[in-house]
Each structure stands twice: as C-alpha cells, then as structure tokens.
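Exam revision sheet. Question 4 asks you to relate a sequence to its structure. Input first:
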Amino acid sequence: MRANPLFDDVARILGSPMPRRQALGFLGRALAGAAVVSLLGPRAAWAVNPVPPCPGRYTNCNGVTCCPLGQTCCGTGGGSTCCLTNEICVNGSCKSKNSPASP
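Answer key, structure tokens:
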C-alpha cells in the first residue's frame, strides 16, 4: 500500500527529464492551486453545515458543544460551555447561583 500516492506522482513527474522552466512552472501552478484550496476550502465546507448535530436529549451550544437538557449554554463562540442546573451564566462564565458574583 502506498502511503501518499500524490507525493509519489509529483516526485515521478519532477524526476522525469524535462526542461527546468517547465518543471518550475508545474511546481508554481501546483503551489498556487494548493494555496487557493487551503484559503477557500475550509470556509466553503463550514458554510455547508455550520452547526454540528447533537444527539437526542442534548441541545447545541453555539456550534461548539452539546449541553444535556436542563443545562444552560454559556459564552460565545469557541469559549462556550454548559452551566450545571445550580449555576448561572455571568459574563460568559458559569457561576454558582449562591456566588457573590451572581446578579
């Protein structure tokens, strides 16, 4: 089994007799194509399904995690977390309902 057939194919093409100008042009086009795909690919894939599915009895928490029913989603974006039933969300952090920092 070949580990990376693309690498093998590129190495074989570049290893074959060809003018330097043709080899550099091939390499430049390959790098430009890889750059375009790396810049545009993740955004397009994320836009197709931005929110991961949560199993039953769980709710989606800002597309980051899944909170069990009864828990509250707290925070925004990548800092989202689930607060327990005895906690409240204060400024993006879970605090005990009896905490002095609670409103």
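Marking note for examiners. Residues 43-49 have pLDDT under 50 and may be disordered.
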